[in-house]
Amino acid sequence: MTIAPLRHADVARCVEIEHELFHGDDPWSENAFRSELDNGNFYVGAYVDDALIGYAGLAVSEYEGSIHTIAVVSAWQGRGVGRTLLRTLLAQVDAAGVPVYLEVRTDNTPAIAMYLAHGFEQLGLRRRYYQPSGADAYTMGRPANRD
């Protein structure tokens, strides 16, 4: 597996993955991905033999980071791909010395466990955050790593 910057050429595959994983909610569109890339946000892809199997994205300001998405195709879940993507994002916020925040579905136990293992804590609950399913989300945060 290789982690590399996400390319505009990957957007169509990202949309396919979105529909696979988030079909019950509002999967991101091509325009959403293109906007994230065009606005200079930090996005990486996980590739196996040049095939995109996952991606992750982050926005960083001088005050904080915000993880926008981490997604791994079903066939590759549970193999450390998400953890590797998360660690890649965390390296960016650690270099900036800022805290980082995210939202995660309250029923996504594997993701919650991964975030807790990487220093995140639950800060709040957003009722009916994901639409149209109405699923709740935890807001989680991790303090700045100021080593």
Automatic annotation (TrEMBL):
Its main location: cytoplasm. InterPro entries: AcTrfase_RimI/Ard1 (IPR006464), Acyl_CoA_acyltransferase (IPR016181), Bact_Acetyltransf (IPR050832), GNAT_dom (IPR000182). Its EC number is 2.3.1.266. Keywords: Acyltransferase, Cytoplasm, Transferase. Residues 1-145 form the N-acetyltransferase domain. It comes from the Bacteria. It is found in: Cytoplasm. Signal peptide: none annotated. GO terms for molecular function: protein-N-terminal-alanine acetyltransferase activity. The keyword Amino-acid biosynthesis does not apply. Gene3D superfamilies: 3.40.630.30. One of its GO terms (cellular component) is cytoplasm. It catalyses: N-terminal L-alanyl-[ribosomal protein bS18] + acetyl-CoA = N-terminal N(alpha)-acetyl-L-alanyl-[ribosomal protein bS18] + CoA + H(+). It is an enzyme of class 2 (transferase). The keyword Transferase applies. Acetylates the N-terminal alanine of ribosomal protein bS18. PANTHER family: AMINOALKYLPHOSPHONATE N-ACETYLTRANSFERASE-RELATED (PTHR43877:SF2), AMINOALKYLPHOSPHONATE N-ACETYLTRANSFERASE-RELATED-RELATED (PTHR43877). Belongs to the acetyltransferase family. RimI subfamily. This is [Ribosomal protein bS18]-alanine N-acetyltransferase. It comes from Lentzea tibetensis. The gene is rimI.
